[in-house]
Design brief:
This protein is mostly helical. It has six helices and no strands.
């Protein structure tokens, strides 16, 4: 063996046949695929000062970024009225459904029908008085009243 062969550094998996070592972060077709994939999934980056670390120091938080409490309360006190306009019907029916979820008394079908009837305004109120006289189930079953309104 010659002196040159004995002093040559061992060839690593990242050393191409040319013998030129690659700089970190740069890959060539000679870099093994598993190293290229690992570099893509685990880049050699350092966390910034702004990132939270597991050190003993407390992370600094910007109070402006904190979540602000907001009221998500649905008010059913005043109630949604319905006068018979077709475009207002979906909002009225949704109000009655939400009121039922918030008020356990409205889970009773007759009470729910009475509540909805109480929220009707003219001309829907006049229609209900005429129709409920002929169809008493409108006062007993919500599904019947809802179907009649639709």
């Amino acid at each position: 063996m010659s002196d040159r062969e004995e002093s040559a550094p061992p060839i690593s998996r990242t050393t191409p046949p040319s013998g030129v070592h690659l700089r970190t972060g740069h890959h060539s077709p000679h870099t093994p695929i598993e190293e290229r994939v690992a570099a893509a999934f685990f880049p050699c980056t350092q966390p910034s000062d702004e990132e939270y670390t597991d050190s003993e120091e407390k992370a600094l938080f910007d109070p402006a970024m904190d979540a602000k409490p907001t009221s998500c309360e649905v008010s059913a006190d005043g109630g949604q009225t319905f006068s018979g306009k077709a475009d207002a019907l979906p909002a009225f029916l949704m109000h009655v459904r939400l009121k039922e979820l918030m008020d356990s008394d409205l889970r009773d079908q007759a009470i729910k029908c009475a509540y909805a009837a109480n929220q009707l305004r003219r001309p829907a109120q006049d229609w209900f008085v005429r129709t409920a006289t002929a169809q008493p189930q409108l006062l007993q079953r919500w599904s019947a009243l809802e179907a009649a309104l639709v």
